UniProtKB/TrEMBL annotation:
SUPFAM superfamilies: Phosphotyrosine protein phosphatases I, Winged helix' DNA-binding domain
Domain of life assignment: Bacteria
Domain HTH arsR-type: 137-231
Name under which the protein is recorded: Metalloregulator ArsR/SmtB family transcription factor
PROSITE patterns: HTH_ARSR_2
Length: 254
């Protein structure tokens, strides 16, 4: 069963909202995540901007009132400022409460401050998920470079992975169209990539979507980034075919 995590700050416009999006992005398969504010306003545009810059989906993010969450069950309530820690105690029982104290980037209105807050939140949330893995006995995936590069050694598998990296989530129908290849062939290569720990899946309605595995290590992410940046035409034609689709399914990124 997924653990339920609530992030709380004062306005629910930046810190807790970014934390919600980050944990969903990093470990959405293990946690149900929400955020709220003791005095909520609305999402700050710069907070949404730095999330999107980092490839983190922002659809559905909105500011919420902490009092509206008091009847829900939470395993963890993580406060991101001293004011929220003082005010949410009674409301958030019997959840395990964790107090983090992050300066409010809204006070500066500077892109660099929001980006730094996002970076520091990502590091703290990474530690939180690691501790949770140890507590529950779940082990992170082990990525053997030989197995990884063997999986990437096929031209079609590499194209599939780079397309999914570019588009965030794709279903088999989209991939067969983009690659101009048969469904059995694409499905077989997707199974190989999933077995190698490079992809994971989720169902949305009638479609099963593939996306990069949330436990993919940083060294492998850098390999994919460098491959894309140094080979700008690698999947250029495939992306054009995707954009030309008139019956392309609509995917929810969150």
């Amino acid at each position: 069963m997924k653990r339920r995590v609530l992030f709380v700050c004062t306005a629910n416009s930046a810190r807790s909202l970014m934390a919600e999006a980050l944990l969903k992005h990093m470990a959405g398969d293990r946690f149900e995540v929400a955020s709220a504010g003791t005095e909520p306003t609305r999402p700050h545009p710069m907070a949404l901007h730095v999330l999107q810059e980092s490839g983190i989906a922002v659809e559905g993010l909105h500011s919420k009132q902490l009092a509206d969450m008091q009847d829900e069950r939470w395993d963890y309530v993580i406060t991101l400022c001293e004011k929220a820690a003082d005010e949410c105690g009674a409301i958030c029982q019997p959840a395990q409460q964790i107090a983090w104290d992050f300066p409010d980037p809204v006070l500066t209105e500077r892109h660099a401050t929001f980006a730094l807050t996002l970076k520091e939140l990502k590091e703290r949330i990474g530690l939180f998920t690691l501790v949770h893995q140890k507590e529950t006995g779940r082990k992170p995936l082990e990525y053997n470079p030989v197995s990884v590069f063997r999986a990437l050694g096929d031209e079609l598998r590499l194209a599939i992975l780079m397309l999914i990296r570019d588009q965030k989530k794709l279903c088999v129908y989209e991939l067969t169209t983009a690659l101009d290849s048969s469904q059995p062939k694409v499905s077989r290569h997707l199974a190989n990539l999933k077995e190698a720990g490079l992809l994971e899946t989720e169902r949305q309605g009638q479609w099963i979507y593939y996306f990069l595995h949330h436990q993919m290590p940083q060294w492998l992410i850098r390999v994919l980034d460098e491959t894309s940046e140094s080979n700008s035409t690698l999947v250029e034609q495939e992306v054009k075919r995707l954009r030309a689709m008139t019956d392309r399914p609509v995917v929810r990124l969150l």
